[in-house]
Design a protein that fits this description.
The chain is an alpha/beta fold. It is built from four helices and eight strands; from the N terminus they run βαβββαβαβββα. The chain is 24% helix and 38% strand. This is VOC domain-containing protein.
Length: 136
């Protein structure tokens, strides 16, 4: 399993956003400091209030929200079942407080991808790969 931990300045906005994408909130691991969003059986996003996120850091490290632009440390990537799922998630993200980071396109034969930023600026890449094209 993988747990992606992301800081936020607005937990309510993050909740509305991830819920609108169709992810399932795990109430057992959610409270006023954190929300647990199940993307799949093996992927969970933990959206943590910035001050709570900071309690997991050591030394002089501090939470960074990429919304203002600048350096990026990570692009979170999700595999989709179809090109339609890529387009649907891109549309849902844009309509619910996120933004298009990279327009959906087909950069290679058998691959379709796009990317959106959540309300805090964390980027999520979406990709569909044609199984037949990947075989040869």
């Amino acid at each position: 399993m993988i747990f992606v931990n992301l800081p936020t300045d607005d937990l309510a906005a993050a909740d509305a956003f991830y819920g609108a994408l169709g992810f399932t909130k795990n109430e057992q691991f959610s409270d006023e400091n954190a929300s647990s969003w199940v993307i799949s059986e093996s992927i969970t996003v933990m959206v943590l209030a910035r001050n709570f996120f900071a309690t997991f850091l050591v030394g002089t490290d501090a939470p960074h929200l990429p919304g203002a632009g600048g350096d990026r440390e990570v692009l979170n990537a999700l595999s989709c079942e179809s090109t339609e799922e890529v387009d649907q998630l891109m549309s849902l993200a844009a309509a619910n407080g996120g933004s298009t980071y990279r327009q959906a396109n087909a950069p290679f034969p058998g691959m379709y991808q796009g990317a959106f930023a959540d309300p805090d600026g964390h980027v999520w890449e979406l990709a569909w790969m044609d199984p037949e094209a990947m075989q040869g």
